[in-house]
């Protein structure tokens, strides 16, 4: 019938506009009572279904029809309860909508294409390329992420993005994932935190269900793994990941990885993985410059719909220079403070709101750490900085390294260099060792805490 053929064509268009899961959930159980260029009437199984379709899918249907006929029809839904009774998916159609409520809600609205890709992935609609402020410190990572979306598997593979906490790694990965899904709505994408990967793998091993795990990870077009440094201690998972990597890589599937440190500094990461991570592009994100921070503060304020005077934005950008999450936190605090006390957001009020932050920690240098440890442990500064490895010197030196990692922004190399020209692995080892020791040995814990608190009081 002509009517059915028209609906088939429209369905085809719909399938290109929504993700497969949505299509399966919502469009399998409907049929056209009427379909012509002026009017489409669809029978749906129940009232809830009807309301849902009206709210979230009517515009997609209109648009899809317009793509076929050149004119957007009116769209109506009618409940046909026999559909529910006859449908094998009946139960599912009652429950599935609730599960993916948020997701498909955002997703079906074509006017908001960034949300469209979000569905089952729980991507943050705020983490897009559009909302990512580019500056000298993150330009490379940003450009590379855009490039791999343009040419997946061809531009840079893998793309390895590393940088400190709160510098925008997850934001970039999600932006790339969402942009990719927008371009290829039916492609298979896996976005997982490394922790999840490890957990899933361990579970799969326990259940003896590795096959399913593997096809989930390997039968994909685009794999994003956030915070790969969690792979450090999971040996068997490294092995598994190595094979996942190889299988995707050789099939020219795109891989994006984020980490808090460059490949060679991830503790106890197998050499073969380290070298693979360097095959593509390794992009470092540095802490943002003042101009970038200012732009981010203004940008976030605009996104939240709050007016922030320039002076206030400058105050925040000047004083919070380590990490962008804290920058956002400061913005939240000043606007919240103004709202709470019902006062205008002035420079004065911002100073008050940020008092604790602004006057908290002065920056600590490696020398400060060494000096403090030297006096507390009665070890000579020159010994801490020397080559001798007797226990009475080595332990305080390791404590120095651990605290320097905690309190300063110096790199592993710089810290190692300061303490007797040691290399980065020595620092990593010391850092881990003391972290462990703090858990098990109250004496070390007290000493370390003592040093840290007197350094914070400077
Ligand atoms: P990471 O994963 O590196 O720890 P996130 O990606 O979680 O950091 O970023 C922390 C916060 O800072 C997020 O809210 C993110 O949106 C924001 N952010 C980071 N970099 C930028 C940027 N360049 N422009 C806008 N917001 C940013
Ligand atoms: Mg992150």
SSE blueprint:
Elements: H1 2-17, H2 20-27, E1 31-35, E2 39-44, H3 47-69, E3 74-79, H4 81-86, H5 90-99, H6 101-108, H7 113-116, H8 139-150, E4 159-163, H9 169-183, E5 189-193, H10 194-207, H11 210-218, E6 222-226, H12 235-250, E7 254-259, H13 271-277, E8 281-285, H14 290-304, H15 310-319, H16 324-341, H17 347-358, H18 366-377, H19 381-384, H20 391-407, H21 412-418, H22 424-440, H23 442-456
Parallel strand pairs: 2-3, 4-7, 4-8, 5-6, 6-7
Antiparallel strand pairs: 1-2
Helix pairs in contact: 1-3, 3-6, 8-9, 10-11, 14-15, 14-16, 15-17, 16-17, 18-20, 18-23, 20-22, 21-22, 22-23
Give your account of this protein's structure.
With 458 residues, the chain is of the alpha/beta class. It has 4 domains: 3-79, GMP Synthetase, Chain A, domain 3; 117-285, Rossmann fold (3-Layer(aba) Sandwich), CATH 3.40.50.300; 290-359, Helicase, Ruva Protein, domain 3 (Orthogonal Bundle); 366-456, Chromosomal Replication Initiator Protein Dnaa, Chain: A (Orthogonal Bundle), CATH 1.10.1750.10. Helices cover 60% and strands 9% of the residues. It has 23 helices and 8 strands. It has helices spanning 2-17, 20-27, 47-69, 81-86, 90-99, 101-108, 113-116, 139-150, 169-183, 194-207, 210-218, 235-250, 271-277, 290-304, 310-319, 324-341, 347-358, 366-377, 381-384, 391-407, 412-418, 424-440, 442-456; strands spanning 31-35, 39-44, 74-79, 159-163, 189-193, 222-226, 254-259, 281-285. The strands form 2 sheets. It has a 5-stranded parallel sheet, with helices on both faces. The protein starts with a helix and ends with a helix. The structure holds adenosine-5'-diphosphate and magnesium ion. Magnesium ion (MG) binds at residues 169-170, 226-227.
């Amino acid at each position: 019938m002509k009517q059915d053929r028209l609906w088939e064509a429209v369905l085809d268009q719909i399938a290109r506009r929504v993700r497969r899961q949505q299509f399966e959930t919502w469009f399998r159980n409907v049929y056209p009572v009427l379909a012509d260029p002026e009017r489409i009437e669809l029978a749906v199984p129940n009232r809830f279904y009807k309301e849902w379709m009206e709210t979230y899918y009517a515009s997609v249907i209109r648009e899809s029809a317009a793509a076929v006929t050149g004119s957007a029809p009116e769209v109506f839904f009618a409940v046909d309860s026999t559909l529910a009774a006859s449908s094998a998916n009946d139960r599912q159609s009652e429950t599935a909508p609730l599960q993916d409520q948020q997701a498909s809600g955002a997703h079906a609205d074509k006017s908001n294409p960034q949300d469209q890709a979000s569905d089952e992935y729980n991507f943050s609609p705020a983490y897009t390329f559009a909302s990512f402020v580019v500056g000298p410190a993150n330009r490379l990572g940003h450009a590379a992420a855009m490039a791999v979306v343009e040419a997946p598997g061809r531009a840079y593979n893998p793309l390895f993005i590393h940088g400190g906490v709160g510098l925008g790694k997850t934001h970039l990965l999600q932006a790339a994932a969402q942009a990719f899904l927008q371009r290829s709505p039916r492609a298979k994408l896996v976005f997982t935190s490394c922790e999840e990967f490890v957990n899933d793998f361990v579970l799969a091993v326990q259940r003896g269900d590795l096959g399913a795990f593997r096809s989930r990870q390997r039968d994909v077009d685009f794999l994003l793994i956030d915070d790969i440094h969690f792979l450090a201690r999971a040996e068997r998972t490294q092995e598994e990941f190595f094979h996942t990597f190889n299988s995707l890589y050789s099939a020219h599937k795109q891989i994006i990885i984020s980490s808090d440190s460059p490949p060679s500094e991830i503790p106890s990461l197998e050499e073969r993985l380290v070298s693979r991570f360097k095959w593509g592009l390794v992009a470092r994100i540095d802490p943002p410059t003042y101009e970038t921070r200012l732009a981010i503060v203004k940008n976030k304020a605009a996104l939240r719909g709050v007016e922030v005077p320039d002076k206030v934005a400058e105050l925040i950008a000047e004083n919070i220079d380590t990490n962008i999450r804290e920058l956002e936190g400061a913005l939240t605090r000043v606007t919240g403070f103004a709202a709470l006390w019902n006062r205008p957001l002035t420079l004065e009020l911002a100073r008050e709101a940020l008092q604790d932050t602004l006057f908290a920690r002065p920056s600590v240098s490696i020398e400060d750490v060494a000096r403090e440890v030297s006096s507390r442990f009665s070890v000579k500064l020159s010994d801490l900085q020397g080559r001798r490895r007797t226990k009475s010197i080595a332990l305080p030196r390791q404590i120095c390294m651990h605290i320097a990692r905690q309190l300063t922004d110096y790199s592993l190399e710089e810290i190692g260099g300061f303490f007797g020209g040691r290399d980065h692995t020595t620092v990593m080892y010391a850092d881990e060792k003391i972290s462990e020791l703090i858990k098990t040995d109250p004496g070390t814990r007290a000493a370390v805490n003592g040093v840290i608190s007197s350094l914070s009081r400077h």
